[in-house]
Design a protein that fits this description.
heterodimer; A: mainly beta; four-stranded antiparallel beta sheet; 9 strands; B: alpha/beta
């Protein structure tokens, strides 16, 4: 089912502990999967399972994942084995150079 | 943000002492219950000292969708109530000492009592996810005019966090000691950035250098942020305790900002804290805090180098964040090439540039900082001072900081302030107020000679007065306006 995301929307993998938050989202509904299975909007909708082949690269805590066009950006709040994809296209890791803490 | 903290750090200790820890799950629960207690209030005003659970007030307001408005408790009663009255109908949370002084509000509650009587249940329903809502109202320190209400929206603060801080980037043993007050922009943004990084926040209620050093040791503090006057007092306290490095084995990073630091204090601090990474942060209230950073490697390179350009970096505000654009313009608003000083303009998603009276961003989204400075060819930003402090002597623009730095190179000089006073012939002439180090003596001729030989005659103060001390705001900003009025009165 297509999801309409807003910055701040919490997203859960339906099959493992992976959790993300939308930092940037397109206005239109999208087909978002985590681990190859449609993402869910509540931890209660989670069941056990394994990520589909090709969607099992996992995500790292605190990292951000984005599509080629930069229309969507998801931040990982709980790491897991499931990788996010929009309409079947895997999102890529957004590289950011860490800065020293300033405040 | 509240959801991120709950989800990412449910078991991680984010607040409190080592004896009374508060985890991410605790903080999330307190914020949602706090939001329930804010029902019907258009804003949350906080007026008081730092408190171990201060971020609960901030996050409760965010979850309730109302602005968090910290007010300076050190103001006198009339000034304090004037600022409180700018938020009609707000809930005012205060510390026990300040609560009786607040007369301009409908409802005043002592923060501890408010926390103790929060509703058991969280505010029902989802929080308003309005990126464009005002998250925080901060009053500028007003060194040149009456305090202005600067507005920071959720999108500005999130842009700062996403651009400058890695979510969960802190190790789980890290703790930051915060001694800047809650009404200072750094006191506000550190709540966000450290919580976002997953770093435990330890508060110093009110600053004292010895208590600061003890707390760093007792709480195994790894990070700290201070304003320059605090840094100077910490270095003095370490010096009193004897020669050699300070005894703070856990401390890894010390950031400073909020006002110009004396290069000598910085060099002494680097000597006394040889294992600590120093970070200079430059930013304004209107820019949602830090927009430029001079990092630990730059500090150590400057100390170790023989190259005068690298050595001078200690006086730099560092490099602008990759998410922020900078432009230096001349008096006719034309962009200047690298190395040439002018007015500093900034643009980026974290730059608010907005007051209660309206936005001051130009049509292309640039914010005029009213700071003068330049960016060197390597991309290092140097801030010369507020444009309003620039002295115009016989048509020549003179930045007071340049002369003050020369005066401070004299071993007898502890502090210096150069201002322009009215002059019939030159329009303005230069007058200096100088504080000497304890037990030191030097003549005005010797100091004037020092400036003349280092700079030139037109930048030499015409008069120099000695003072016991100079006036500052409580966050360490020199009150030039007061010095200028005093010296101008003497000049008549």
């Amino acid at each position: 089912m297509p999801l309409t995301l807003k910055p701040g929307t919490r997203l859960y993998s339906a099959i493992d502990a992976t959790e993300m938050i939308a930092v940037k989202a397109p206005a239109d509904p999208i087909e978002l999967t985590i681990g190859g299975v449609a993402a869910v909007l509540s931890a209660d909708e989670r069941t056990d399972g394994t990520p589909a082949e090709g969607h099992d690269g996992g995500v790292a805590m605190g990292k951000r994942y984005t599509d080629a066009g930069g229309t969507i950006e998801l931040l990982v709040t709980r790491a897991g084995a499931a990788a996010p994809a929009v309409a079947g296209e895997l999102l890529g890791l957004k590289e950011a150079k860490p800065l020293p803490a300033s405040d | 943000m509240v959801e991120m903290v709950e989800s990412g750090f449910s078991d991680r200790v984010l607040l409190g002492s080592r004896e009374a820890p508060v985890t991410g799950a605790d903080l999330g629960s307190l914020a949602k219950r706090g939001a329930a207690a804010l029902d019907g209030y258009p804003a949350l005003v906080y007026v008081g000292e730092n408190h171990p659970l201060l971020p609960v007030a901030l996050f409760s307001a965010a979850w309730a969708g109302v602005p968090f408005v910290p007010v300076n408790y050190r103001l006198d009663d009339a000034q304090l109530n004037a600022l409180v009255e700018r938020q009609p109908g707000a809930l005012v949370l205060a510390d026990a000492a300040t609560a009786p002084r607040v007369t301009g509000a409908d409802r005043v509650v002592v923060f501890d009592e408010w926390l103790a009587t929060l509703p058991a249940d969280p505010k029902p329903g989802d929080p308003p996810f309005d990126d464009d809502a005002v998250a925080v109202v901060l009053y500028t320190s007003g060194t040149t005019a009456a305090p202005k209400s600067a507005l920071l929206r959720h999108r500005h603060l999130m842009a700062y966090l996403l651009g400058a801080v890695e979510f969960g980037g802190a190790g789980d043993d890290e703790a930051v000691l915060v001694s800047v007050p809650p009404y200072h922009v750094a006191g506000l943004t550190n709540m966000l950035s450290n919580t976002f990084a997953g770093r435990r926040i330890v508060y110093l209620q009110a600053f004292d250098p010895k208590v600061w050093l003890d707390t760093v040791r007792d709480e195994h503090v790894t990070n700290a942020m201070v304003v320059p006057t605090m840094l100077a007092r910490i270095v003095d306290a370490v010096t009193e305790q004897g020669p050699g490095p300070a005894d703070v084995p856990s401390l890894r990073a010390l950031s400073y900002g909020g006002a110009k630091v004396s290069e000598r204090v910085l060099r002494e601090a680097l000597e006394r804290f040889p294992e600590v990474g120093f970070v200079n942060a430059y930013g304004l209230t209107e820019t949602a805090s830090t927009i430029a950073i001079l990092g630990p490697d730059d500090h150590r390179a400057a100390i170790a180098s023989d190259d005068p350009v690298v050595r001078s970096r200690l006086a730099s505000a560092g490099q602008v964040l990759p998410t922020v654009e900078i432009e230096v313009r001349d008096d006719d608003d034309r962009p200047l090439p690298a190395g040439e000083p002018g007015m500093v303009y900034l643009r980026g998603e974290q730059i608010s540039g907005e007051y209660a009276s309206g936005s001051v961003l130009d049509e292309q989204g640039w914010f005029c900082t009213r700071d003068r400075g330049y960016v060197d060819p390597e991309g290092y930003l140097y801030i010369e001072g507020r444009a309003d402090d620039t002295i115009i002597r016989g048509g020549e623009n003179i930045a007071p900081a340049e002369i003050e730095e020369v005066l401070l190179t004299h071993p007898a000089v502890a502090e210096a302030c150069v201002v322009g006073v009215p002059d019939d012939e030159w329009g303005q002439r230069l007058a200096a107020a100088v504080v000497l180090r304890a037990g030191e003596v030097v003549g005005t001729d010797e100091l004037r000679q020092l400036v003349r030989t280092t700079l030139r005659g037109s930048k030499t103060p015409d008069t120099i007065e000695f003072r016991e001390q100079l006036p500052h705001t409580d966050t360490g900003k020199l009150l030039r306006r007061v010095v200028q009025q005093e010296l101008a009165a003497h000049a008549d």
